[in-house]
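Blinded run. Sample ID left blank on purpose so nobody reads anything into the name before looking at the predicted structure. Input follows.
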Amino acid sequence: MKKSLVLMLTILLAASLFAGCGQDGGTTSDAILYYACGSEPYLTLDPSVENSNGVCVLQNVYETLTRYNDQTGEVEPCLATSWTHSDDGTVWEFTLREDVTFHDGTKMNANAVKRSIERTIGFGKGAAYIWANVESIEVVSDYVVRFTCSASTSVDLIASAAYAAYIMSESACDQESDWFNNEEGNDGGSGPYTVKSLVTGDQVILSAYDGYWQEWKENSYKTVVIKKHVESGTRRQLLETGDAQIAYNFSTTDIAALKSNEKVDVKYVNTYNNILLFFNTEKEPCSNEEFRKALAYSFPYEEVINGVLENRGQLSRGLVTPGLWGHDETCTQYEFNMDKARECLANSGVDVSAVNLEFAIQSGYTEYKDFAQLWQTYLKELGINMEIRERGWDAHIEHARATRPEDRQDIFVMIWWPDYADPSSWFQSMVHSEESPAFNLSYIKNAEWDAKIEEAMQLTATDRASAEALYKEVQMGVLDGAHMIPVYDQVITYAVSTEIDGFYYNPAYPSSTLYFSITHK
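Blinded prediction complete.
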């Protein structure tokens, strides 16, 4: 009862805030779009700093020079209309739209772009590292900006990132982070919505921007409420009553109930996140390729996806997830096959009576523990003993980075996703040789693969097709040798009211959707 009252007051407050407002950019709808999220809607709304949940707000308040289309695998114009680069991919020029204004009424131009990215680089927080190769940003003219890089760099892809790539007004560039988090609502964006008000750690209310450069539809939502509701049952109830239109991440019971509700459409959306098993190739017995293959064939992939995850995952094909260039459906994918596992184990020559594997998992992830215990039972059938060790993240990663290989775990599990729409994240971080391990937690050292990865990274800016071919070669080699195993690609469950149209989830922009594209029926 108390929760229902709080919700009603929130919605009434939001409605009262906008009653009598002019019809922004052609919007005529008084309806409120209510997004019930399962955790804090943001950590900070400073677009130079936020690197977490706040993308669900930032994507609708700010814009980037380019945007990645996950359906075509291409980078498309946004604030930039076109771009060119030098033959060596080190100098990029972006031509900007001339009809865009920020929410403070000032024009979006090359100087604003320069100051926005320089502010982000200068702060050095969040995902600012994506600009590491940029040596200078120059204003060529009012609507042309030039990036000069220390090496061949795919600035068009970086400029499309979900974090650290937002363009803001020059006045906003002068502000400290606290200004963006003022509960009365401040922002420096050019996007379709302005930040009307905040409740720290709990709620954001957005209002349609009068001067937005794209055309609003008559039944667009001019008010959006994003509010935290931790309990899955509460989010389900809000959808069932029609008080919320979008929510995600539900318990199995709630998903089943929502599926039977004709007023709700349950959507399983793909992500660029995948869960991988890393084998310690510098320590016996996982230094033995045939033994690693025995492990790979003994993992119950489908049983994990269908049972443990209850279909909130899909079988991986390669290191790079579907929808992102570099993905390869023909990559080696191990299947659950105990006969093949026994054959590989016999070929390995490993005496399993002397084997005691350590499987390191991060505490707090029940799905990891559940599938580890399931896998443990199948390994016992092979005579292999495996102990499951849970640690908090700091201890988990510190153990994996121990100086001596024999002091590290045998098997490590981790989720991975790219910083932006570029597969280099998997290869540079997890495959390329490292003197001291950071995220190459199979401890791979392969000079041939290193050279191909480095060449692919250089070619990305100038010859993406050749770069993609090189990445596919490397991931085929990694999987053929069972150095690491992508177990499944994460799937997120959204529930969306059937009273709205236009909901779409682009995995390049996690935890967010474009409210501007959503209309009510």
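Unblinding after everyone has recorded impressions. Confidence is low (pLDDT under 50) at residues 1-28.
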